[in-house]
Every structure is written in C-alpha cells, then in structure tokens.
Here is the input.
Amino acid sequence: MRFPAFFDAVPGIVLHDPLAEFLGATEGGLIEYRYVDAVRLAGHSCPTVAAAWGMTRRALAALYPDGTPQRGAIRADFRADRLSGVTGVIASVVTLITGATLDSGFKGIAGRFDRRKLMYFVADIADEIRFTRLDTGAAVDVRAELQGIPFAPETQALLQKCLVGRASAGEAATFRDCWQARVRSVLLEHGDDPGVFPVRPVTAR
Here is the structure.
C-alpha cells in the first residue's frame, strides 16, 4: 500500500507507556505514533484527523516541555458531546495517542494501568479540548482554527462531481490531490502555528 509521501514528514509523537513496558510490548515502554497510525485508525486522511493530531501533539508538548508524555496518565475533556459533529473522530485519535477512554478502555491489572474514566464530554471549558496530567494536575486547553487554511478553489466542484459519479479519472485524481494538499498544509506548514493550534495553560481555580 502507498500513502501520500508527506505523511512521513509529519512529526511523530513519542510517549512512555508503563503498561507496554510492564508487559514487554516495547523496550522501555517507549512508543512512537505517526500520523499514518491515525489515518489507519480513522480509515482516511482529512482536516479533522489532521486537527486531532495537531491539537494532541501541541498539547502534549506544552504539558511535558522537558520530558516524555506518559500514556495512560493524561485526561482529556471535550467541550462537545461525543456524538456531536466530528467529536467522535477527534476523540478516537486522542484515545490512540494518550490511551484515555471514557469507559471502554483497559481495566487495569491489580489496580494499575486503568485507562477508563480518563475521557469526558460536555465539559465546562472554553476551548475544544482540555488535556490534564494526572501526576501534577497541570492542564492546557487547545483548539484548532483551520478557517484560514482553505481548500484549493476547485475542490468543492470536484467533490460534487465525484459524489454523483460524474468525475473523470483525471478529475477524481485532482480532487484527491487538492484534498490532501490542505491536510498537508495543516500538518506541515501550520503544525506548530499558535494561530492555528492555540494552546492555553489552565490556571488553578
């Protein structure tokens, strides 16, 4: 199988997973997730999947400026309901990376490594997602502002032709290129852009 070449250029996210270390899944419990892992999970690459990746990467970098993020030790709160819009897609990517789940995750071993009750929805927060470290209580809010990263002008018309089966092979290929070009821009040109992925530390109340 072949993925778009730019997938390999997207910065990965390295985490330490105590459960993986405990069970010998990876040496030292270190796991690197790549954007292609999120694509495999979602079954597609789109601005929503890219936004989920970007928000999570930016938030974890802010929470762990001098260390490795700890998978299974991060809580994620969403402002929206999990059935609202694309929240479910974003949440699935957050689960992939952080291990956090609402109630369907790993139940733990002898009281350790429980991944449940680490994800919540309809939270009273101003931004899209709040990530919180369980060890220190440090938290950041993050959102994605993709409005300033438009699709190529011809994308919408080509999309409609593809949906009704009237696009030629060349037009379908052009549509796919236009679609992934915006994803590429989100991840590579704006992946560290605070205007696109603003991260705000949460002060204790």
Summary: DSSP finds six helices and seven strands in the chain. Helices lie at 18-22, 35-42, 47-63, 87-98, 155-163, 169-189.
